[in-house]
Amino acid sequence: MNPFIALQECAGIGLDNYHFLYCSFSVDNVSGYIEGSFLLVLNENTQKFINDMRSLEFPEDKLIILYDSGDYQASSKAYWGLKAAGFEPRLLLRINDLPEGINIIPESPPLAKKSSSAYLPFNNQVALTKADLEQKNSFFQQLVQINYIAFDITDTNGQILPSNQILEMMKNSGIRFIINRGSIVFGKKAFLGGLLLAYVTGKSVSVVIDDIQRPMDVERQKSQDFGEMGQSLEITDKKKSEEFNKTSDYKATIGKQGVSVDGDKKIMNQHKGNRNKDTAICSNCAVV
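Structure tokens predicted for Rhodanese domain-containing protein (288 residues):
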């Protein structure tokens, strides 16, 4: 999975095929934008942010491209919000050289179009609130904390670095996870970190929208389950991961009747119908 795209690639295919969104936490922080872009202002209140994502309207025949001032903070958060609302956006990499034919307008772009109501579903298995995380009865993902990303993710030509190179830099930065396991990412850099984790592992990744600095910030009835998943897990090769899975107390088997966890617990498979759009939950959306 490569959620990133360079402006050179957009220019090569043709800008008419894309819908550019400049993402910002404030309408006053924009000093220039790619011609043809719209402004997406992100509300820092979680519920308002979710409702805004559910209200957006885009052309159906264009790919959504997200960018910001260059630190990826706003654009990566918008990525997960739009992903949970059913869109397939791409994150524009930091611009080193402006391709020929692309103009920067030195002002703020027009606001992105929104519906008067939150009509879209919102998959809270892709982007979770703190409450969503607390309500989980069991985990198949590991919890990964990412507070700092102290390296550049692009090369001198503005292209995304190879996944194995980013994997090594994440390892050297102290970000700990098992490479062949899905993840729920939290922390100050959860949004960009979650994108990088999906890029280097190819596994399912979810992010926590709310600011959670450590697993203990989440209150859970089954604290031992959360504690096991919240442990720092070293990046390891496939062989070591298999050894971990063999020695771990966690065992799951999927059958027609349900999912067995640790042998003495059983969670029955239940098909849930579509919920009302106002619940902000889409039961049929898949985790990517």
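Residues 220-288 have pLDDT under 50 and may be disordered.
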